[in-house]
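Subject: Spermidine synthase structure
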Amino acid sequence: MGKKRSKRGHSSSASSVGAQTSPVGTYEISTGTADIEADPFRDGAYVLHVNGVPSSHIVPGEPRELEFEYMRWIAAAVETFAPGHRLTHLGGGACSLPRYFADVWDDSKNTVVEFDAKLGELVREKFDIPRAPKVKIRAGEAREETEKFLPASRDVIIRDVFAGAITPTPLTTVEFFQAAHRALVPDGLYVANCGDHSDLRGAKAEIAGLLEVFTNVAVIADPPMLKGRRYGNIILIASDAEVPEQHQEIASRLLGGAVPAHYKGPAWTTKFSTGGQARQDAGS
């Protein structure tokens, strides 16, 4: 999924899980296996692998520690542009982002839609995930659940769903974006983690689709990714609210990471997506 570690030289966590309560191990889940491994760079931290693919990093007792760079980029976008604190997370993993927002915003309500029911039960058992209504984990397929959301029932939707290294196509179509748009309040915020290859065809297609539904689209990524030099993550930001071309606060947060990223506003993003073909549901 192109997840990057910052390897910032952390010291040992004061809340490290002791040997007797260590969650390390291999577990059967609904879709296969989940492996929880100790982080070799930080005592008391863990990495969750789902069917062999790195999914989440978690530090028990320290919910604001986001080790994957792309999650920091999502956090920066949401904290900058969210109109409210009702968040829906499509894709759960170890609930790193829901834990983060539950701690940052005491009044936040985070609903997590996780396809793998047993994975949701596992991470709830092994890690310090706040209980509902702060963090509610529900089993379900992301597209089907999004179609069921009541109109204007949430402030933010975050899509971070992968099957292996790619996002399932039904979560990248115009019809899906329309369902997400209906579920958001006016000027609500849609944020997606788009993993793409150097040709950037996937990102351009998603942006083209988002522009058919939302008024403004912006992106966050590191420069090599935006120049089409490698596989990696592009964070897509969409809203009917005004999204500025430049934003000093978000820019300073992005440049402070181990992997400096850039924020690009709607004018740049629209030009970038030129030639992108918006995806439609099969049969549309």
